[in-house]
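Practice problem: predict the structure.
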Amino acid sequence: MPNFDDTVRINRPWSDWIFLSQTRDRDGGGFHIHNPWGNSTQPQGAADRNRLEIAYHTASGQDKWGQFVLHGPTGNVGLSTANPQARLDVNGTTIIRGDLQVKNGAGTTTVLLDASQGDIRLQGADCAEHFPVLDRAGIDAGSVLVVDEGGLRLCARDYDRRVAGVVSGAGEFKPGIRLGFDGDGDGDTLPIALVGRVRCKVDASFGAIELGDLLTTSPTPGHAMKASDQARAFGAVLGKALEPLAEGQGMITILVCLQ
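Answer:
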């Protein structure tokens, strides 16, 4: 048997509550383990029933409930909250001594907060912000967009200084950070790469694209081209080619750099 410091009591002050508590005569403090199960007036999944709760009993006789809660029907655990809304629901400042890993369903780490290095490591390749777009059906990842009244649309002329950027998410490069995204997949907005690597539609029929070339908008809707005219390129550059394309249309990796 454990060597308890004092008396351990099990009692039922109400018909639907069970208390396990340790009396501490020296300072009046202690803990209650509380399981309010089975009240016939409450549904089984009620948030204020069907849970295991550990509460602190202060020296002045007050019970601080919600210190630790395990909700039976959901399996949710709450710290400093009596009604946990997730598998772990913490109400208050949290300190983690060590790395924090976020894994997907396959067990792959997609986000890592490295405590020793002070790094945030993400799988994605760019930082993107969601913008409203016009004619959403005709726009896909890798398309080059320009600013227009009411939103962004496909580019359709060369050296367009209204260039906004490239739609993120084509190929193997996915956005690592999304700004202005509410998470519900709103069809009226699309992520535009602000910085980093992204796959981009290009048209080499206006000039072969070589590694390191600056890119601008082209007359081909949604495509970039090599910026050969430096005077016209000022203010219309969207990125730098990280892959060549000798002819025709295709998708290449670029480094986003609006200028």
